[in-house]
Amino acid sequence: MNVKLHTPKSLKTGSGMATMKQLLLSVVATSISIALTFGTAAVIDSNKKEKEKREIVMMVMYDMYNSLQSVQKADSMIYESMLIQRQIAEDTAKFSSLRFQLVHNVPRVDYTETTERIFSSSIETINTVGNVLFTENVADFYQARQSYKTELCDSIAGRIIADAPFATLKGSLSFEYSYDAILSAEILQSMRHLFAQCQQMMEVSNKDLEAYRTERKQMELSTKNKSETVSSTGEKVLKLQQEIDQAVKRLELE
Questions:
Q1: Exposed/middle/buried for 62, CB within 10 Å: 0-12, 13-18, 19+?
Q2: How do residues 17-55 score in pLDDT, each as one tens digit?
Q3: Cα(first)–Cα(last) distance of the chain, in Å?
Q4: Quick one: CA dihedral 186, 189, 194, 197, positive or negative?
Q5: Rounded distance, CA 232 to CA 103, Å?
Q6: Nearest by Cα to 185 from 67, 86, 72
Q7: Positive or negative CA dihedral for 82, 88, 91, 94?
Q8: How far apart are CA 239 and CA 142, in angstroms?
Q9: CA dihedral sign of residues 80, 84, 85, 86
Q10: pTM exceeds cut of 0.85
């Protein structure tokens, strides 16, 4: 026996119930589409912000790392100068050779303020990072870096320029480093602590830093090569123009 199924009249196209069902399905489908669209956009936007945040953090941490290395080197130079003074005091015959080490062993810190200015002057950049404690630590780190330069490096260099102490044996042995060495150790320890805190709170490992440093070095090398290429091209062009001018001059054209 063949049984023929019939669609209820209430669900046939054109009926009120069928129209309502189609409307509900359309609304649900539209809602799902909108949710997927905005959800996908939100995910993309979130990923973009996380990437921007990571790039800013790595840029700042890289700058802090380089600054810390420079300060550590300056700190070592101060201590080394005191060791040289002791050698001279124990054997004054070494003065003539060692005093030149004192002259060249003036501590200094090498850094640029580019990253500091980018990070500190932009509210948008700070908001992207979204970590108040990190921002405060970075500000304290940069302040300590500036203090090290002015209160130690500039101060020592100024005293040496003003008094020329290493010209004589007495001056070389009388030049006082102890206060500088203690202050240097205090500032350096503070900077190390701030750096370690920033690493921990932003989950930046030494491996991450090394990878970023390698990437930056490659970029800097590429930029340097381009500059050298431009410089070389410029020299060739100028030389060629000079040869043209000389040849034209020999023609004595009016």
A1: middle
A2: 667 767 766 666 666 666 566 554 444 555 677 888 888
A3: 117
A4: negative
A5: 37
A6: 72
A7: positive
A8: 46
A9: positive
A10: no
